[in-house]
Amino acid sequence: MTGSKNLKENDxxxxxxxxxxxxxxxxxxxxxxxxxxxxxxxKELYKVEGxxxxxxxxxxxxxxxxxxxxxxxxxxxxxxxLEDVLEKVGGVVHSVDEVVVGEYIPEAGxxx
Length: 112
Hints:
CATH topology: Alpha-Beta Plaits
Low-confidence stretches: 1-5
Number of helices: 2
CATH class: Alpha Beta
Mean pLDDT: 86
């Protein structure tokens, strides 16, 4: 093939018409304080296709709800499945605060 490059283990080939792969996503979410732990949530999210790592940080504590910052990295992550998993464990997505799509994860740059 003309113009081909040497592919590495984690490289993803994107065909025309195919959705671009999500590599990293940061989600602001909440879960109930009773019945589920952030360890449980992390383990369930890790089962989603394409996920290679999950980091969850509690950023708000209320009587009935924990506010979470969830960072998920991988190759071709299925966002809809992430959202479904959060809902199944009793959580809710407040917002998607960052998303990286493409062949690699670029370094965060200064925006101001």
